[in-house]
Amino acid sequence: MATQGLTITLSNEVLDEVKRYKKLLHKRSTGEAVAELVKYALTLPPYFKGFDWKKAEAEADEEIAAGKTKSFRSAEGFLSDLKK
Fold this sequence. Notes:
It is a single chain. By secondary structure, the chain is mainly α. The chain has one domain (12-82). 62% of the residues lie in helices and 0% in strands. The chain has helices at residues 12-24, 30-42, 46-50, 53-65, 75-82. Helix 1 (12-24) crosses helix 2 (30-42). The model has no long low-confidence stretch (mean pLDDT 91).
């Protein structure tokens, strides 16, 4: 497989996440970790590529704070509620 060099600039926050990923999966280098993450990102379905995760998390936090949650005593109760 032919390869080419590429230089990218990452924020410290993103680089810290890449380093965490590298350590977690025992990658040999930061470059190897970045290459794997880029390959993964390129294979994501379009829905996930355009999804605003930060907005969704903020909306979920607001609903939790407003008490718009349910608790269930069992998986059966949860599944029954989903069918309503």
